[in-house]
Specification:
This protein is mainly β. A 5-stranded mixed β-sheet has the order 1-23-22-21-20, with no helix packed on it. The protein has a 5-stranded mixed β-sheet with strand order 15-19-18-17-16, with no helix packed on it. It has 1 helix and 26 strands. It is 5% helix and 46% strand. The protein has one domain: 6 Propeller (Neuraminidase). It is globular, with a radius of gyration of 18 Å.
């Protein structure tokens, strides 16, 4: 309850103080794909396996459900929810069949068997801050902390084994951190080997992060900003949700990652605080988180799919 209260207060502060800026008008999509989630689910984390299985985690209790991108609902319970065990960002290691989940206020990383839902490991990353999102690469899983200028590296060896020897990567260079911001570094993706992209939710910036040094380079968006929650990448195309505007931005990155530009924004009437995002070959799937709506068992939740 205390964690939920803290989040609501912080979110209200963010809504009232986020920077004002001009942006392109979002295209209205009238016929998005709608995948129903269980009532009262309160979704946040999302990831899609190569076989089209889509997994969604609950923001408050870490419950995980799964379904198919070709279906109409995501309701098969893989992991039961537990109070005070949040499920924020999530990514799948397709090679080993594992789900990596960012533990939010718990400060932990959790690893589940993607087929059985068994908890393989729970790793403490920090006792201060919000472990917000995760990306799995060929040699590590990387987690952001929205209330500290840090990224956590959980190594994966050549045999696919996960190590509990966490390396804390302190973000320096262009990265701007302010302890008063509820959402600093948030979403995370891999741009190429050794380089991550992390977005700053409050400032609307994106950074290229050298994993060896922690040095962050601002990827200039020109006069635009994108105040994203989650981000997802395909080649040099980056998608970021903009929850305060109930829309999604599509961003074209330069090959050098020195600059980028917003090529379009899109939305649908159903969007209500879209949080995280995942991709398959045909669609952009967005978590319709409704985080400004009081949670109850009667609230309906969805994943919303937009054709790419």
């Amino acid at each position: 309850m205390l964690k939920t209260l803290f989040f609501n207060v912080a979110l209200t502060t963010l809504l009232c103080t986020a920077p004002a800026f001009a942006q392109t008008v979002a295209d209205q999509i009238d016929d998005p794909v709608i995948l129903a989630l269980p009532d009262g689910f309160a979704p946040d984390g999302i990831t899609i396996a190569s076989d089209g299985t889509i997994y969604v985690a609950s923001f408050f209790d870490g419950k995980i459900v799964r379904g198919s991108v070709g279906g109409s609902e995501i309701s098969d319970v893989l992991v039961e929810g537990v109070a005070d065990r949040p499920g924020w960002g999530m990514d799948i290691d397709d090679t080993e069949g594992r789900l990596f989940v960012a533990g939010g206020f718990s400060g932990t990383a959790r690893i589940y068997d993607a087929e059985t839902g068994a908890l393989d490991a729970e790793i403490e990353l920090t006792d201060v801050g919000i472990v917000n999102d995760v990306i799995v690469t060929s040699h590590a899983a990387y987690f952001t902390n929205s209330s500290a200028p840090e990224v956590y590296e959980v190594p994966i060896d050549a045999n696919g084994a996960v190590s509990g020897d966490v390396r804390t990567i302190t973000l320096t260079g262009d990265f701007q951190f302010d302890a008063e911001f509820f959402a600093n570094g948030n979403g995370i993706v891999e741009a190429r080997d050794g380089v991550l992209i992390v977005n700053h939710s409050y400032l609307g910036k994106i950074y290229a992060i050298d994993t060896a040094t922690g040095i962050a380079k601002d990827i200039s968006l020109g006069q635009d900003i994108v105040s994203s929650d989650g981000i997802a990448i395909d080649g040099l195309t980056l998608f970021g949700t903009e929850p305060l505007e109930n829309q999604v931005a599509e961003i074209e990155l330069s090959g050098t990652l020195d600059d980028a530009r917003v090529v379009r924004r899109f939305t649908a009437d159903i969007l209500d605080f879209p949080s995280l995002v995942a991709l398959d070959d045909a669609y952009v799937y967005v978590v319709n988180a409704k985080l400004t709506t009081e949670r109850s068992d009667n609230v309906t939740y969805h994943i919303v799919g937009f054709r790419r």
